[in-house]
UniProtKB/TrEMBL annotation, chains A, B:
Presence of keyword Protein biosynthesis: no
Residue ranges constituting the ABM domain according to the UniProt record: 15-101
One Gene Ontology term of the molecular function aspect: monooxygenase activity
Protein name, as recorded: Antibiotic biosynthesis monooxygenase
Superkingdom, natural source: Bacteria
Organism: Streptomyces alboniger
Keyword rRNA-binding: no
Family matches, as InterPro entries: ABM_dom, Dimeric_a/b-barrel, Jasmonate_Hydroxylase-like
Pfam families documented for this protein: ABM
UniProt keyword annotations, A-Z: Monooxygenase, Oxidoreductase
Entries under Gene3D superfamilies matching the protein: 3.30.70.100
Length: 113, 113
């Protein structure tokens, strides 16, 4: 997500975290624009709580999306534009990736006082 | 973790993902050295599966640690050196952070053929 001002959450459990980690292939085009479009689309999914991304230059990228329940994840995973972007990701952008769908059992946060 | 060559996992569910997201404060000292020591220590915890980190310059950092079960998480969270580092993190390194402890229900991966 652009311009993060702090970590997302924590939220009241239970909720879901979808961890997406990836290594980019070289020379892909349209990755940034599609990413921005996906940010817009996921924000409209009922039960979407928030997301955050980080990519160390030259290294692995991690995006975590937070969802209220399985229905919200299903809605996002079945979105046609999202599915098209996933296909394009495999064909053009990613050298490799992993996805972990996980139910958050507890969470906590800290903000400097 | 240093020199990632690809995403960690996926592993055979169930397992746990501990998502740690943070924004750094300005001017902290000893952050990198302590991080390297924590990488060493966690690798020795029985049931630790792997971890990965990314930090966008000037933005949010995300570290995800993967553990076989709750016992492994407890062992890591009760490690005295880790606890001391956490205290120091609040006092010196982090502007804010959030932790999400989540049980992975399904996972999958892709590697370019």
């Amino acid at each position: 997500m652009s311009d993060p001002v702090g970590p997302v959450g924590p939220f009241e459990p239970p909720y879901y975290a979808v961890v997406f980690t990836s290594v980019l292939a070289e020379g892909g085009q349209g990755y940034g624009e599609t990413g921005e479009r996906m940010d817009e689309l996921v924000a409209a999914v009922p039960g979407f709580l928030g997301a955050e991304s980080a990519r160390t230059p030259g290294g692995v990228g991690i995006t975590v999306g937070y969802f209220r329940d399985e229905d919200a994840i299903r809605a996002w995973q079945s979105d046609p534009e999202h599915r098209a972007a996933q296909r394009r990701g495999r064909e053009e952008w990613y050298e490799s990736y992993a996805v972990h769908v996980a139910k958050v059992e507890r969470s906590y946060g800290y903000v400097r006082g």
